[in-house]
Amino acid sequence: MSTPEKAFLGDWTYAAGNIAIIAIVPILIQYYIPFFRKLNVTTAYEYLEKRFNVSLRLLGSLLFILFHIGRVAIVIYLPTLAITSISDINPFLIAAVIGLLCVVYTFLGGMEGVIWSDVIQGIILIGGALLIIVYGVINIDGGFGTVINDAMNDQKIVSVDDWKWSFAAATIPIIFLGSIFNNLHQYTASQDVVQRYSTTTSIQETKRSLWTNAFFAGITIPIFYGIGTVLYSYYEQHQLLSEGFNTSAIVPYFVLTTLPAGVAGLIIAAVFAAAQSTISSSLNSMSACVVVDFKKRFYPESSEKSNVQLARWVIIVTGILGVGVSLFLINTNQSETLDLFLSLVGLFGVPIAGTFALGIFTKRANAPGALIGLLVSAITCYFLQQSGLISFFFSVFAFFSSFGIGYLASFLFPNGNKKTTGLTVFTIN
């Protein structure tokens, strides 16, 4: 919903973020995957304890949990908009039901349930997106030709200005650069993805999985940005949007007011499938972090039964917290939710990705220095986000400040170094 909104309001410049995923796969395969595979960790943050100390592990895990509570809230908010855009159902009730459903099946299904439901939901999602494009083109006078003409005349794909360097505007260079570090966070420091590396049977299978993911990241560019471009032409012709319309709901509004009832129901199911896929991954990974990084770390003799019970309680509590934050978003009628999400990544996610890189790519960095770098980066990003600069700037700043300050601060603590054999790229084997 938020990706087509960007193409509807502007153009395809944000697609540079998808390309950034493809660009980092060789880095992941060469450096990061060997660490996570050979350490045989349950959470990504176990590496931080091995490389630095337990404080970095706990802080990294906590930042991940805070980020994903916000992420769950945004993902609950979007399908809520989908329904309220064409009905009088209470949005607070819708958000509560979405959250409850995701909590229940994550509670019952565990990691295996998350992965297999992702497979089914992914198929529904792509199929629904293609149907929107087809029906949109059919209902435009002049069809696909009109879409192309509108896109060229109104610069709805890419313009010359999109290639300029600017930290105050969303241009291709800064989006691409910022997205590299956003994706490094997702694939190296975010438990919901890292937990999947250990579900494959071999490192070769993990590599194939990453390349497959990169392939689909490229495939989805014309599909989801294409939706926004088609809807732009459609509403330019039909002028059906009311003044003050929340553009985050543009896709479900089109679906439910234009498509036949059965098809519309299927596509709205795709919207909910995408939400459930994201939420269930977040809930499952947050529960893993609380159990492994906190409970089992300090109470290693705790029974498996008590660990499972705690994991399920974490799913319930974090689900409730996510619903609570989504109710705030509903109450304030947030739009352009992709920018809101990227702000969360810059604040809670990318600084910890800088800490991971600091541990892997340097021998000199130590725990006190890394901790200072992480805290300074996160706090500075919080205040800088009030400046009005583009969210991708904060991702670049967050990574390099966490990495650079952490490295320099390490020199202030010469006695803080510990043995790093097997924990950096210099002894990767």
Automatic annotation (TrEMBL):
Residue intervals passing through the bilayer: 12-33, 54-77, 89-108, 120-138, 163-181, 214-235, 250-275, 310-329, 341-361, 368-385, 391-413
Compartments it resides in: Cell membrane
Pfam assignment, any one: SSF
UniProt membrane topology term: Multi-pass membrane protein
Keyword Transmembrane: yes
Domain of life: Bacteria
Predominant cellular place of this UniProt entry's protein: membrane
Keywords: Cell membrane, Ion transport, Membrane, Sodium, Sodium transport, Transmembrane, Transmembrane helix, Transport
Family: Belongs to the sodium:solute symporter (SSF) (TC 2.A.21) family.
NCBIfam families reported in the protein's UniProt record: sss (TIGR00813)
Protein name as it appears in the record: SSS family solute:Na+ symporter
Organism this protein belongs to: Rossellomorea pakistanensis
